[in-house]
């Protein structure tokens, strides 16, 4: 009797095991991509799912970056987080400090026996998301960088040669004066004030944003954005604003639309804005390297990225992690990379993908993207130009921008504003440090 | 001779004219944003972005509404609006019906029974007036998350169910019901629940109608709570869906679709107010007494 | 106030009250207690590491100039919304009470904004005042006003005040109209016979008799401006620029949800709770008196 029961149980177990194997494992992937980007992401997931039958990546749009991160944290606390979460770059510190809640990518790939070579990635990209030892914590996915757009028609109208776009801030100021004198209403505008004029500015000039390798080497990091060079930059912006040569149009990406409408002669925007500009601009435009201060030794260095990366959440089965590893391997494929890059305007993140795209002639029609990549890889990153990692940086970046705005409107001197920013953001950094002891 | 209006004590046509003028100005100020929204919902994106936009309706209305209902916006969130309208409807009707049902039986219990802890329960309900959702955002969210009710209809509806104001309204009303009715019922041998269904409910019909209007609008217009509790596009209500359509910059938002969605979002409650105006006005004034 | 005749039952009243009490406990009291509990802690967003810090969150709050600024912003915002909403609706109600023809027409057109969600009111007004494409912005630029609320704090405040007050006009209007119509005509007629003109009659008789309604609406409008206008702010300025429109309730949301600062946000919630309690006490002490009439 017992033997019969045992036999039945074994058969049942075997049946259950095989049917579990026969079903594809779901891998939930929460993201914030909309429009064309969202469509392309769904397309990539479909391709991966069609290429094998063990795993099924299920992309779910969960709102903007801030909303989806909040939702994922709540889901994790309730025990049903997604397997993969797309997190914007300012959330990196929060994710990196959440040991136990996340699985670092290098560990994931190793445990799953997936081939993975961090050196295949553009150093500026992998550096942002790695620990000080060079181990990648999250998987770079959609990265952009700041570039310098000029309205060639406006330049010509002022008697300037658009092929000789200003390379240094000194030249920039001179050109701005000439444009204003020629009657240009909006001479210069920008999107993403802090990302451009503090974060990228520091990297491009190879000066630190903060101690401890901009926060990557430790939670005790302190901001250093009130150095004389930074004060010089913000003072210049305030000066331009007073002369009517810098038209600030608000936080975020407001500058994109303003430049695309043809109002402004020059703008520093994300390379991701070129899609909108290409669509709406009724004038000739071109993309160039960010200007730099000629007297700073070491400038220009390289710019840093913005955008988001993919994090792997903890608490899942090894089978799920194997699936995630395979999906990441798929995403690293140069051909998949090229597809994503050319469709969305985000930059290719591996050297192979860049080479492949170059060979396809894509950059002849879209020279702006190559400028962005060349700027990103101008020199191998130093400790100052790999990126940054600050806790509570969603608030932190806002605070920095608030202070700069106060300097722009003349309410405070640049030095006072930056000093204030350092004090306030350092407070947030200390709180983050205390909460993650 | 009692004159109907305070102002008509003297017959002053100038005063009358001035009054009409002020009222018309008031109506213009109040209706202008609606008019602009309506016009924008009938234009193409280019027509709107090309300032100043025209003030007479365009011809693109049908496409915009259709696009919004079926496909949502292209930039920012792309949840289709028809689903969002359905979610709003479910929430609004459930919240209104649920609140009325729960409050009327609570009020009935408090007024028509003597029992231990009655005062205590009354004050417990009263205290909820001092705890609007904005004051307990994070923990309420956590409770819903722990109950696995995120992104679900119960999660959207349940926390909005308890209402002190509806309970008080019914309580005040029950206080005015003559005791003779209760005595008559008891003489007839009817128990409390018979009394409830045969006497209380029919008498409360107008209050329930007025409350339904107010609570429907309350449920439809909920913003902060759905914002927290829904992360799946398929569970958005239309009021928060609009916010999520407003992508990045002014130039990037598809204003013609956003405005069509705005029209769709405010039409149902506006129609409810317009058609049930009398009950609504009565209920509003009553509920605050 | 008690009923003379009641029912007796050992279990029925409890059963009838159970649903409301259950919801009240699960979704009101339990979270409120948790808010108090969290306000004494500092946690990381994932809840992996929590530290008890007693009152430090509160001391940090009250030393934080930006939190204190939020108080000022909220006070300015609610007073402006109440003042604008009440004065305009009082004017309109007085005129509506005056006319005979078209009263229903005006009333219908003036009360429909009650149906509009504050968030949508915000979107409508933000559309009119959008710096680049807004209709009103265009005409403002034509007369030389450089309108950009994303950069100018006062303009941002003006815009949200307009949106919030616009929405409340209908609510206030209804109450004023009801109040006006309950004023005994004999009083007004007597004054007219004594030779008082309409303006004089208004200020010396009508307005004082309306004061209960006015006071009631003042409290209601302030509570509205404190809490219900979250949607207006979130759908338009999101507290900016430079936190100039960051009312208290918005800061609670932003710090707790966006910035994942659970401890700080919970401490702010506790402070808000005290404010609500104070406002509710004022409102109910007042209403109790009305009920006695």
Describe this structure in words.
The complex is a heterotrimer of chains A (437), B (289) and C (293). Chain A has 437 residues and is an alpha/beta fold. Chain A has helices spanning 2-22, 35-51, 65-77, 92-96, 105-111, 123-128, 152-157, 169-181, 193-204, 211-214, 228-242, 254-260, 274-280, 318-332, 334-344, 351-359, 362-365, 367-376, 393-408, 414-435, and strands at residues 25-31, 55-61, 84-88, 102-103, 139-151, 186-190, 264-270, 285-288, 305-313. In chain A, strands 1, 2, 3, 4, 5, 6, 7, 8 and 9 form a nine-stranded mixed beta sheet that branches. In chain A, α2 links the parallel β1 (25-31) and β2. The longest helix of chain A has 22 residues, at 414-435. Chain B is an all-alpha fold. Chain B contains 15 helices and no strands. The relative contact order of chain B is 0.15. Chain B has helices spanning 13-40, 45-49, 61-71, 81-112, 118-127, 137-146, 153-157, 164-175, 179-187, 192-203, 205-220, 224-229, 238-245, 255-275, 277-287. Chain C has helices at residues 12-38, 56-63, 65-98, 103-111, 118-128, 135-142, 153-181, 185-193, 198-228, 230-235, 248-258, 262-291; strands spanning 41-43, 50-52. In chain C, α1 (12-38) packs across α12 and α3 packs antiparallel against α9. The mean pLDDT of chain C is 85. The interface between B and C is large, with 111 and 109 residues.
Summarize the structure.
By secondary structure, chain A is of the alpha/beta class. Helix content of chain A is 50%, strand content 14%.
Average pLDDT value of chain C?
85
Using a beta-carbon cutoff below 8 angstroms, give the protein chain pair with the largest interface and the number of residues from each chain: B-C, 111 and 109 residues
Q: Which consecutive residue ranges of chain A, at least 5 long each, have pLDDT under 50? A: none
* Model regions low in confidence, pLDDT < 50 over at least 5 residues of chain C: none
The computed structural class of chain C is mainly alpha
Provide the succession of SSEs of chain C. Answer: HEEHHHHHHHHHHH
- Assign an overall shape of chain A: globular
Instruction: Please identify the structural class of chain A as seen in this structure.
Output: alpha/beta
Strand content of chain C: under 5%
Question: How large is the count of helical segments of chain A?
Answer: 20
Overall form of chain C? globular
Specify Rg of chain C, calculated over alpha carbons: 24 Å
Record the strand order, biggest sheet of chain C.
1-2
Biggest sheet architecture of chain C: 2 strands, antiparallel
The portion of residues assigned to helices of chain A is 40-55%
How many individual β-strands of chain A? 9
Strand content of chain A: 5-15%
Helix and strand pattern of chain A: HEHEHEHEHHEHHEHHHHEHEEHHHHHHH
Largest sheet descriptor of chain A: 9 strands, mixed
Average pLDDT score of chain A: 89
**How much helix is in the residues of chain C?**
over 70%
